[in-house]
Amino acid sequence: MGIGKRMVGLWTCLFLLTLPAVAAADDSWSKVQQRGELIVGFCAQYPPFESKNEKTAEFEGFDVDLGKAVARQMGVKVKFVDAEWQGLLAGLKKGDYDVLITCMSKSEARNENVNMSDVYYTLPDVIVVRQDESVIRDRDGLKGKIVGVQLGSGSEQLADKNRELFKEIKRYNYNPEAFTDLKHKRIDAVIVGYAYAVNQIKTDPSYKVVGKPLAEADIVIVAARGADALTARINQSLSAVRTEGTYQKILDQWLKVD
Q1: What is the pLDDT of residue 18?
Q2: Nearest 5°: phi and psi at 190?
Q3: How many domains in the chain?
Q4: Would you say residue 147 lies in a domain?
Q5: Are residues 147 and 160 part of one domain?
């Protein structure tokens, strides 16, 4: 009798092990609601999308204003947390942030097992050279040249796809370092997002953009994998920000190219 009971217990355990695991409830949006604040991770090293104003010490840029507008539509406050670009996705998975709003493309986030919002901007990747450069006029002019890119960026991914074209790809923690090396002729060109290139040229006209864009990147808001409720709420807010006209105002202020 005792053996029979033990056998029944064993078969019960084995049966339970074969049942599909019950997914944990998605509380990603309710957590933000209860806190009353959306915590946004970003890297304030990429004007005009995000940077710190040297005079006011305040964060500013397209992503900053968009984040504020999205949070307002969600009915919560927003807190921006500045961090190293290379550690943002790890911080998101750890729970340091609710979302990333930091000019991150689908290609940059795709292999990281995360949720992505609807596309909120399409960013061309372009070639930047010195103003006195006469040989490099387009993609073909990069043959046998040394190009600079930011580590972990979509521009780096693009360069790697075309690595056979270049003599060397130099990788930098941040784009300003690449532009400094370009100015001092330590590299021949920089591959970078068009909006950043234009902002840099406005600050320092010793650079220029040449040729057609090499590619276009879809920019998204990134949330943790499984944060479906929060992602859906983000998309609702993005749509509302567009409909009310706020998106266009922010776009005109930060990303309009004359």
Answers
A1: 52
A2: -125, 135
A3: 2
A4: yes
A5: yes
Tokens representing 174?
């941040």
Whole-structure pTM value: 0.80
Dist. CA 197–CA 207, nearest whole Å: 9
151 contacts 238 by C-beta, under 8 angstroms? no
The gap between the terminal CA atoms of the chain, to the nearest Å, is 87
Q: What whole-number distance in Å separates Cα of residue 176 and Cα of residue 181?
A: 9
DSSP 96: S
Domain CATH for 86: 3.40.190.10
What's the token pair of residue 171? Answer: 């990788």
The reply to whether 51 and 103 lie within a common domain is yes
To the nearest 10°, the Cα dihedral for 130, 133, 138, 141? -120
Pair (66, 181) in one structural domain: no
Whether the CB-CB separation of 61 and 254 falls below 8 Å is answered with yes
Residue whose tokens read 């983000």: 234
pLDDT at 111: 76
- Which amino acid, 227? A
Are residues 100 and 32 located together in one domain of the fold? yes
Question: Do 72 and 86 have their domain in common?
Answer: yes
Domain around 242: 27-121+219-255
- Residue ranges in the chain whose pLDDT is less than 50: 1, 4, 6-8, 10-12, 15-16, 19-23
Three-state SS at 169:
strand
Q: How far is CA 203 from CA 13, 64, 193, 258, in A?
A: 68, 20, 16, 15
